[in-house]
Amino acid sequence: MSVDELEGFILSNNKRRDVVSVLEKEGLASFSVISKKKRIPERILESILEELIEKDIVEQEEGDFCLTDLGEKIVANSHEFDSG
Question: Which residues does residue 59 pair with via DSSP β-bridges, in sequence order?
Answer without folding.
Answer: 66
